[in-house]
Amino acid sequence: MCKIIMEKLVLILILIATISCGQSKENTDNEVKEKMKLDFNNKIIEKYNVKYSFDTIDNFKYSIDFKDLISTENQFIRDFQIRDIYEKDNDYFLKVETWGSMNTFYFDLKIKNEGLNKIRKLTTWEDYEKNGYYENDILVVKIEYIKKIDFIIEGEIGEYDEYSEEYGVDLNINSSLFNGVFLCKGEFIDYIKID
Questions:
Q1: pLDDT tens readout for residues 74-121
Q2: Domain that holds residue 187
Q3: Looking at the DSSP assignment, which residues form a beta bridge with residue 174?
Q4: How many domains, in total, are found in the chain?
Q5: Are 126 and 75 in the same domain?
């Protein structure tokens, strides 16, 4: 009886040791990945001389708060949606949206042919479809203008009404007095795909 209890105790100790080693290896793997990601981000920051990322500036409430950001060489946009690519007066433009916990930013970025080709080649529907936005990818931009939008008009198609045989339309007009919604204009510099 005592021998059986001892064997079970030894098995439990071996199981605990195995689980602990597995967790330790997993933690080490995660630490290595985080360090590699940090090193990669630092290299990008250094290469493009970036001082601001739009996902870290939620405390800016007014257009004038962005004065220092505009004076820097380049900025980052992470976790973004590409809303449109269009042509105007023989120039191409990229419309992008990103957000933080307090502010939403809409960008109108002039983009050269090389940049346009890179965006078209590197962005896939699968990337977008995972989360509804390009997660962890980075746009390097040079912003020259930021202005808070006074009002936002949002619309969506509502439920199908069997009686009228039509879809309802919900239209909201919101003031951006409390949550900042900003229009930004500038230039696309680069697109960095992070795997």
A1: 998 888 888 889 999 999 999 999 887 778 899 999 999 999 888 887
A2: 49-192
A3: 152
A4: 2
A5: yes
Assigned token pair, 20:
């602990």
Kindly state the greatest CA–CA separation across the chain. 89
Distance CA 106, CA 146 (A): 10
**Phi, psi for 46 (deg, rounded to 5):** -65, -45
| DSSP structure class, residue 119 | H
Q: For residue 76, which of 104, 48, 99, 103 has the smallest C-alpha distance?
A: 48
Q: Helix/strand/coil (H, E, C) string of 19-47?
A: HHHHHHHHHHHHHHHHHHHHHHHHHHHHH
Helix (H, G, I), strand (E, B) or coil at 130: helix
pTM: 0.67
105, 31: one domain: no
Q: Which spans in 100-183 are helix H? A: 113-122, 125-131
Specify the length of the chain in residues: 195
Tokens of 125: 């529907």
